[in-house]
């Protein structure tokens, strides 16, 4: 499933931010951005790291599939003040940006993730989810062909299935 020309990279970055340790510092968050292909990262200071951590907390409820998911994303779009334009920086082909390239990294990440989550919600809101394993709070973007993902990883799915199997054998 393709959310937009980014291929859903911003929605996956949003999930990674939500799943990141809330105590992550600037260096860890900059590494997370780079690991998810966000370029250019620029510099992150402690204030911007705090902004991104606060933003991740705002993104989290979008993955719960609540009835107010559209309203939540609309609020994020307003807060991010995304203003799309086409960019060709770094010899890349034309692609959309949602905030000026010279804006602080945290501002650009907010606009980038809000815009892609909006696209994901419009395309198929069921593709954004939270792991169904009890006790796991990990969020994910379902890019599977059939769109029926319920767990963040195969490991979580296996844990649930093994527990179900063991309960069935003892009953």
From TrEMBL:
Please report the stretch or stretches of sequence annotated as the Zinc finger CGNR domain: 127-167
SUPFAM superfamilies linked: Jann2411-like
Q: Name one Pfam family in it.
A: zf-CGNR
Judging by the UniProt lineage, the source's domain of life is Bacteria
Which InterPro entries does UniProt cross-reference here? ABATE (IPR010852), ABATE_dom_sf (IPR023286), Znf_CGNR (IPR021005)
Output this protein's name: CGNR zinc finger domain-containing protein
- Per the UniProt record, the source organism is Saccharothrix hoggarensis
């Amino acid at each position: 499933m393709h959310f937009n020309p980014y291929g859903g990279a911003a929605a996956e970055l949003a999930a990674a931010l939500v799943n990141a340790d809330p105590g992550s510092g600037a260096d860890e968050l900059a590494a997370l951005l780079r690991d998810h292909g966000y370029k250019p990262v620029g510099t992150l200071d402690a204030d911007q790291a705090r902004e991104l951590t606060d933003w991740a907390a705002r993104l989290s409820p979008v993955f719960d599939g609540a009835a107010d998911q559209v309203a939540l994303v609309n609020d994020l779009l307003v807060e991010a003040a995304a203003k799309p334009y086409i960019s060709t920086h770094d010899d890349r082909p034309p692609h959309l940006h949602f905030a000026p390239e010279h804006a602080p990294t945290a501002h650009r990440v907010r606009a980038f993730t809000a815009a892609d989550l909006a696209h994901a919600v419009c395309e198929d809101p069921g593709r954004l989810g939270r792991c169904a394993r009890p006790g796991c709070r990990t969020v994910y973007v379902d890019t599977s062909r059939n769109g029926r993902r319920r767990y963040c990883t195969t490991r979580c799915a296996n844990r649930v299935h093994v527990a179900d199997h063991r309960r069935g054998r003892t009953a």
